[in-house]
Amino acid sequence: METKNYSTPSEITYTTIETGIKKAGMKYSNQFILGILAGAYIAFAAEGSNMAAFNLFAKPETYGLGKVLAGSIFGTGLMLVILAGGELFTGNTMILGGVLDGKIRFRDMLINWFFVYGGNLVGSVLLAYLMVHSGLFNSGANVLGGITIKIAAYKVGLPFMSAFYLGIMCNMLVCLAVWMAYGAKDVVGKVFAIFFPIWLFITSGFEHSVANMYYIPAGILAKANPSWVAESHLTPAALANLNWGTFVTNNLIPVTLGNIVGGSVFVIGIYWFVYIKNDTKKECVPADQSSKNAAR
Hints:
Elements: H1 9-24, H2 28-57, H3 63-85, H4 89-92, H5 96-100, H6 106-134, H7 143-156, H8 160-183, H9 187-204, H10 209-222, H11 226-232, H12 236-240, H13 244-277, H14 287-294
Helix pairs in contact: 1-8, 1-13, 2-3, 2-6, 2-7, 2-10, 3-9, 6-10, 7-10, 7-11, 8-9, 8-13, 10-13
């Protein structure tokens, strides 16, 4: 009998909850360390996608093509997180499924978010620092440095609610990428499950809190180089608005809140309701989960 190499949505729901239980039960130090790795992996994806597309970003008529190219590279970051091992805050918003199912304490979910989010920030800012001091922002006659500053200034200039909504849509796609990767039973399947939703999210221009932990600090640090500032072609007011305070208040807070809603409500929340809460006959319980649920 042929064995399928993927799980059904109902089976993925249970897998996601069981994965969340493991994540919430991990040592705090490991949550933080693996968070650092995931932050660095996403930062690698961010800097690599900018390096590939900065010349296209610099021209309005090729900006969309630049987003397409950047999106084709950015998925590597989540592949590293899922396959190599890391803890990413945006994906961990789906731990809420275990809370809804009564298997994870709300407190433990928040603790996981705290340590993973902190680790993501450390890893992302570290990569931003290394990139600024590597000399790579001189690429393209300093245009990469200018684009890095311009991207950061755009992100801190977003209205609060725009950043919030962009965060919701972003993490719907990111968590669906993680969701489908959980459902794939081989490496190739996981890679393809991740690639297309992430490509779509970057091409669309949505906002990812952990990616922004690289994009915005990189722009803030790059402001110290006059050559890069000149290539950004930003007004003094826009440059002044790019700082650590606006990074947190104008972008990180609304985008993070949007990411939480996108992943916890619109992905795991809906699937939990359909396949567990509202499945009165429990017809979709995987065979390997039936004994566990019977003991509840």
